TrEMBL record:
This is FAD-dependent oxidoreductase. The keyword Flavoprotein applies. Keywords: Flavoprotein, Oxidoreductase. Homodimer. Residues 3-105 form the FAD/NAD(P)-binding domain. It comes from Paenibacillus sepulcri.
């Protein structure tokens, strides 16, 4: 059983996995390799002069793995509540997690099977998004959503920040107190 399972390894999911793993949470990152970011050319991501979307995604995954996140390349087909969290089913395997963060980009196909409520999207060409509160909570206790699927702008810098925000909120809830992650230069 992992503490946090994250569905989707684009900027939101990768960022959430980075924060979760760095906080010492046992973190599982499940990705179907369908991120629209992989087709992007990015010149508006703060701190990065320019980068291919595929490279941004891979760097984010490597950062999360550095702190212990486990990456599984698979498509999630079902999520259901279990006695102590959630059972996450892929085409080949089943995993257990206390909490789930959905960061599936534009893919909302899990909404119906999980029972997540959606609402109309506000971004151009985005028809629907998960209905979340300001912290990223969905209508299903223990399932959170981050990034484009949660209705934030499709810009990678914004989805990455939303993934970090939601992960910090999840970590805080698991810890029972507000979590902060501030690195300091080492002498």
């Amino acid at each position: 059983m992992v503490d946090i399972a994250i569905i989707g390894a684009g900027p939101a999911g990768g960022s959430a996995a980075l924060f979760a793993a760095k906080a010492g949470k046992k973190t599982l990152l499940i990705d179907s390799d369908q991120s629209i970011t992989k087709r992007a050319w990015i010149e508006n991501h703060y701190g990065v002069p320019e980068i291919k979307g595929v490279d941004l995604v891979e760097v984010g995954i490597k950062q999360a793995q550095k702190f212990g996140a486990e990456l599984i390349r698979a498509k999630v087909t079902h999520v259901q509540q279990s006695e102590d969290g959630f059972q996450i089913t892929t085409e080949n395997e089943t995993y257990q997690a206390k909490v789930v963060i959905v960061a599936s980009g534009l893919l909302l196909d899990l909404a119906e099977t999980i029972g997540l409520q959606t609402k109309p999207g506000t971004e151009p060409r985005v028809k629907a998004v998960f209905d979340v509160d300001a912290s990223g909570r969905t209508n299903v206790e223990g399932i959170w959503a981050a990034g484009a699927c949660a209705g934030v702008s499709l810009h990678t810098i914004i989805t990455a920040g939303d993934g970090a925000k939601v992960a910090i909120n999840v970590i805080s809830e698991l810890n029972g107190e507000r979590y902060v992650d501030h690195d300091v230069l080492k002498a």
